[in-house]
Design goal:
Blueprint lengths: L31 E4 L9 E11 L5 E12 L9 E5 L28 E5 L14 E2 L4 E2 L9 H15 L4 E7 L1 H12 L4 E7 L7 H15 L16 H15 L2 H7 L10 E3 L20 E3 L2 H14 L4 H12 L14 H10 L6 E5 L7 H10 L4 E5 L7 H4 L1 H15 L5
Parallel strand pairs: 4-5, 4-8, 8-9, 9-12, 12-13
Antiparallel strand pairs: 1-2, 2-3, 3-5, 6-7, 10-11
InterPro entries: AB_hydrolase_1 (IPR000073), AB_hydrolase_fold (IPR029058), HAT_MetX-like (IPR008220)
GO molecular function, one term: homoserine O-acetyltransferase activity
Family: Belongs to the AB hydrolase superfamily. MetX family.
Amino acid sequence: MHHLRTVHRYCCGPGLPALKAPERFNGKQNLSIHQSPSSSMSLEKNSSFTLPKFDLECGITLPSVNVSYKTWGTLNAERNNVMVICHPFTGCADVGKWWSSLMGCGKAFDPRRMFIFCANALGSPFGTTSPLSINPSTGRPYGPDFPPTTIRDDVRLHKLVLDHIGITSIAVLIGGSMGGMAVLEWQLCFPGFIRRAIAMATCAKQSAWCIAWGEVKRQIIFTDAAFKGGYYSPDCPPTQGLATARMAGLLTYRSSESYEERFGRRTQEICRSISYQDENDACPKAGRAVDSQAVEYPLYAAQSYLRYKGSTFAANFDTNCYLHIMRKMDTHDITRGRVVDFLDEDTALAAVLGSMPARPLIISINSDVLCPPKEQKQLADGIPEAELVTISSVAGHDGFLVESERINTAVLKYLQHEFPEFY
């Protein structure tokens, strides 16, 4: 088992220990860019970037690291109209799949104005090196042997991609939840590289509450007999465990009020009842005789919703990747390795927040139980000249995704104020 080390050479910020310059590669070395032949710089473009090796914060060197990313829009002559979007936990580089309401002409993410970049994190099942990737030393997928990575690792890796593209600065960073964690780390690792930042529904460090929920989801997965310690067959993955873990997660992503508003005590009209034998079925199978002694219960809409969401997620996400990214988030702590050990937690956090670039936008959802508003207030109180916007919504943590109109308005207003040359 690998243990994360506090490595000061990866931690930087004004007045803090200096960041070791990342190893750079030029076109003469083993780099590769793969792009769709039909794409152009002014349109959407899927790309990948491969490094021969990458040093992780845990001390392990990962060989042959691929980064899958996507871009929209065109770089201006100064190459400074760059917007970097950091995806949330189970998101991906294709921002249009999970934040489409903010993407488009006249919206916050406008490819006519900005060159937009989003890359998949390490451990993601969508192209970047992960437990699904082939381990060169064994010729088999890494699976549970994939080394631990951190948010800082993702930031340093994605910076190398931007270096290769020729990006000289980032105009604005944007991210929510895990993406917000990355936004904070970007500002600390490369403060002179970033002009402005927008962090939503996020925190300075992963809370005990979030770590505990992560453990619940891990233990749910471990109880699936198909999991086999992570060495499961691709033909027989632990879909039941992953689906149930996702269901547990969905309870934290929304508020109790949102479930009450959306479902109440409504039952399914097509399939009115379900017997205790059918608890793994969304609906009793047609034509099957029902035991006359079975006690029938209604199938509530809330149940049906969770089952559907769990099963569809499990069909499209890898379990080892899910576990890996959860553990990555547990390591999140912007003070780690950046302050002397004798400082108490509050003093250490105040020192780090006070060293961050000024004038970010912090967005909070008032019903968020996963990253509650007090955590965004802590960021706004500590970062110089930070602006805090609180969205009133019953949507809970997922409000940063589903309250699209109000999020778009807040982000667009900030961008218009900070970047009149673009907006």
